[in-house]
Amino acid sequence: MTNVVFGDDYDEDAYKLMELPAEVCDSLTSGDEVYIVGDATQRAVLCTPSQSFYLVKEDQSNLRMLVDSCQWEHATSEVDITIRGCSINHYELTEKPLNVSELKALLMEAPWTKDWCAKSVLSSPAKKKLRASTLYTLNDLMDKLQHSAYEVRQILRQLRAVCIDGFWRLVDPSYSQHVMHEILDTMVQQDWDLSTALSVDSLQVHLDAITPVILAHTLGGFSQPSATDDAFTLSPTKVAAFQATALFEERNEWPVAAFMEQWGFRVPDGVPIDLSLLRGIAILRGDASSVVYFPQSRLSIDPKTRFHEMFAFQPKWTLAQLEPYLEYVCCPSQLVTGKLTQASLLLKYTRASRVLHSPDRLYSKR
């Protein structure tokens, strides 16, 4: 015989039910830190060391009684089923997408510029106030974005943010270009070729106005993948792309022949140049007689906004033209759109049409 009774400690509000995905269960059983964040103005988010999930409350039509044992089915003697609580709803977890745009917007509130290198400016009352209001530590960013430390670090790495005095910063693009020009000018003055192994210490002797952290950060962005913290060898293709960008900063559109001539003058001796190096930097127009500056780095990270910007610049695109601008939002390692692929992005945001007497297709705004 089975008896159903209410326990002396019965409390209908004492327990909450939550359905957990396998990866969260693994984190709990392995002893990892699992916590819930979110204030009164935010949605509650459950974080593991590597993932974040929204807590979604699901109501049920039936009242569920919560008991402390379910071993009564095969009982041979009288059993009491003690009800400890009840629930008419439960929580489910849905993966929280990474918001790269939000983090970038936070860091762009106070990008690192030349002014930050001046100690007199850094110590001014205005700058101290700016430090307190618009600079963010890793924990600050975790609170703002409601993501785990691992996820925030992944986004910071993707955005090429740099940690200075405990605060994460984005280097202003114009200042980054200035620093790279200074590095290349120093190499010319010292008669160092592109294969010379550079160190922050060797450059600091000639560029003492530039913060060492920024020197290392800039060198890392233009060096071979094998670069270490104390030895950098500049990449010829990255230097060539940098000099191409510098030309476009002077003039937005160039005849191809004139551009190639000026580009050849700008790059160090022995550095090859080719229009293929302009992927994601510029687009060939019309019959390929001119090249127009259109850097993917200045486009929105959000796929919908990025397509809007692209079609505002040019109403019809070939697949070859589109691909460099989709790589950034399709690559899983970039953590921008999660599982979106190039095909799914094209299907969602574009309309394809055939070109007469050609196997190619043109893509326009949907």
TrEMBL record:
GO biological process: DNA replication; maintenance of mitotic sister chromatid cohesion
Record's signal peptide: none
Coiled coil: none
Matching InterPro entries: Dcc1
UniProt xrefs under Pfam families: Dcc1 (PF09724)
GO cellular component: chromatin; chromosome, centromeric region; Ctf18 RFC-like complex
Keyword field: DNA replication
Similarity section: Belongs to the DCC1 family.
Protein name per UniProt: Sister chromatid cohesion protein DCC1
Organism of derivation: Aphanomyces astaci
